[in-house]
Every structure is written in C-alpha cells, then in structure tokens.
Design goal:
The protein is globular. The longest helix has 19 residues. The chain has a four-stranded mixed β-sheet, with helices on one face. It is an alpha+beta fold.
C-alpha cells in the first residue's frame, strides 16, 4: 500500500473559499445552449484534449456531467478495480515504462465510466511523470486540481446545511484524502447527505474542531434504475481497496 500513500500525497492542495453551490437550472441552461461557452460537448472535448480550463469550466463540466447519457453513477467501474489490482506489489521507486503504459491504458478505460475520478486522474499524473512526459503530467495535474477544487468550492462540508456536492460516491473519499486526512466508513444522514467522520478531529482556521465532512450525493440517485438497490452497509475503505457493493 506504500504506492497508494505516495500517490495520494499529490492530492494535498489548498482549498478555495467555498462559494459555488451548484444551481441546477443554471447548469442545465448553460450546458445545453450551443452558443454558451459552457456548452457541454465543447467543454468535454477541451477536457479530453487536455486544454487549460478555468474554474468556471470545471464547475459546469463536473456538475453538467449528471445530465449526460453517459452518466451512470451506479454502474460498476471494472477498470478501477483493475487499477487497484495493478498497484499491488508495484514499487513506486522502480516502476518500468511498460508498467506505466499499462496503468495509463487502464485509467483511460476507467475514465469512460467516470471521467472525473480523482484517484484515476492522480494515477495519470503519476504515470506520465514516471514516463517523463511533463506536458501530460502537468495537464492531468491541472484536471485533478480543478475537479477537487470544484467539489471543495461547492460547500464547506462542515455541516449538513452546507455539504460538498459530489456526483460519485468515491469522489467524497478522494476529497477527504486530498486534505491529508483519513476518514471512517461513510454514514447516511438523510436522503441527500452522507457524513464521513474522521479518524481523528482536526482544527480549522477558525479554531473549531472538524470531526468529519458532509457530502450531498443526491445527484447519484436522481435517475436510479429500478433494478439497482443500494446495500445498507457501504464498505468502501480506501486503504484496503474494497469496492462499494451494489445489487
């Protein structure tokens, strides 16, 4: 598990002041309007081309994805499981080009299901850095930072009233990890919000203790297929690579 710890260290970035709670009407209008700078097909093309994007671009890109036919948050992402398997036994200080090209191939498959998965983006940063491709390493780092900051900017996460908004459950775990914190198993607190308690509380800049973070997961179930049910015991543990369980 040494590799996972080292890779996640890349996620330790300062958070912007939260102020961008997603407005669904605004997101839908702007991403569907072909004359808008946030027209979704154009945004996604720029994202896939590794263009430099603005904070606004990432905001509409991330939350606008929930209105795309390809958005299937309850689908099993087999490539992510393959990615975790490929990391087992990998020495981060002695990786080969072949190993890194294999990681990149798996990540590309994983991004077909979840194009904004922070763990996958993080591995792309690591892999291209190991291959010496600075241009793509920096590009994926911008994407990684842009997605994490978009989520962090959507709410302070310190109360159920102002949760951070996610479009995939695993993104919440990644956000907590990006702050160099370790969370326990997520707890459902309402039909829209989950809570990830921390192993140990931390002190906020205002001096108050933070014991965990709240995340709005409502978008995930907005178009849930009838034949998909969620098991009550959610067991995703980032450190031992257990996937979430669905029927």
């Amino acid at each position: 598990m040494k590799l996972l710890y080292i890779v996640l260290a890349l996620l330790m970035m300062p958070s912007l002041s939260w102020s961008k709670i997603p407005d669904e009407d605004d997101i839908l209008d702007r991403t569907l309007d072909s004359s808008s700078p946030y027209y979704y097909p154009s945004l996604m093309m720029r994202y896939n081309n590794l263009d430099t994007l603005s904070e606004e671009d990432y905001h509409y890109l991330y939350y606008g994805y929930t209105y795309q036919e390809s958005y299937k948050p309850l689908a099993t992402n087999k490539a992510v499981d393959m990615l975790y398997e490929s990391l087992i036994g990998l020495d981060p200080d002695a990786v080969t080009d072949e190993e890194m090209r294999q990681v990149i191939s798996i990540c590309n498959e994983a991004m077909k299901v979840d194009p904004f998965n922070p763990t996958v983006l993080n591995m792309m940063v690591f892999a291209y850095g190991a291959l010496g491709d600075k241009q793509k390493e920096n590009a994926y780092f911008r994407h990684l930072n842009g997605i994490l900051e978009t989520i962090k900017a959507s709410g302070d996460g310190r109360s159920e009233k102002y949760p951070m908004h996610i479009i995939m459950f695993s993104h919440a775990v990644d956000v907590v990890a990006s702050m160099d914190l370790t969370g326990k198993r997520a707890e459902i607190v309402s039909r829209e919000v989950e809570y990830i308690p921390l192993i140990a509380p931390v002190k906020a800049p205002d001096g108050k203790k933070i014991r965990g973070f709240y995340f709005d997961y409502s978008r995930i179930y907005r178009n849930k297929p009838d034949d998909v049910t969620f098991k009550k015991k959610r067991t995703w543990q980032f450190n031992n690579l257990k996937p979430r369980e669905y029927k």
